[in-house]
Amino acid sequence: MLNRLTLAYLMAARAHADQARKGDAGIPYINHPCEVAHLVAETGADEDLVIAAVLHDVIEDSDTTRDDLEHTFGPRVADLVAGMTNPPEWDDLPRSGMKARQAEHMKDVAGDVKRIKIADQTSNLHDIAREPTAWDAAVAAEYIGGARLVVDACRGADPSLESGFDRAVARAERAMATGEPS
How confident is the model at residue 1 (pLDDT cuts 50, 70, 90)? Predict the structure, then answer.
């Protein structure tokens, strides 16, 4: 198990090497998939699900393909990551349009993809709560609303992750209202 998991972290680190999270702190992007994997692992997820959580953005953010993932980690991991990957034609959509498409897509995916998506949205809201001054209030409100739409489409997949998301919404909204990290 550890060999596959550490290989997943290495692959994700390479895929996100030159990326940073939104905000002034310059937080390395790799922190996001690490947090998503941690949130999923806390629910007792199996190895493949944690590996897919680590890798959930690599197809979108690098030249890594679904076939690469299948060759290295097997078809289940590849399918889970592919289920999390936005099609390229969504790249030019406004945030509200992308979130609406993601919500529609999530209605039809396997429960394990939904679990990763809930953790992904939770991590994104944690970023808003940690650094509210990096966000324009209207943009943050739009993002939070879009995340709610997406997670609502995933409800029923994992009550623990859903509860964590709901707490993250409250923290993000509080941070945006006060301008203080929460």
Answer: low
Taking the whole predicted model, whether its pTM rises above 0.90 is answered as yes
> What is the H or E stretch that residue 169 is in?
helix 159-178
Q: Active site includes 60? A: yes
Task: List the chain domain ranges.
Answer: 2-178
Q: Which CATH code fits 2-178?
A: 1.10.3210.10
To the nearest 10°, report the CA torsion of 162, 163, 166, 171: -130
Which residues face 28 on adjacent strands?
20
Angle (CA) 122-117-170 rounded to 5° is 20
46 is catalytic: no
- On whether the CB atoms of residues 56 and 82 are closer than 8 A, the answer is no
According to the model, what pLDDT value does residue 2 have? 81
**Active-site entry in 60, 70, 131, 142:** 60
* Residue indicated by tokens 């390395």: 28
pLDDT band at 27 (very low <50, low <70, confident <90, very high): confident
The catalytic residue among 47, 48, 61, 67 is 61
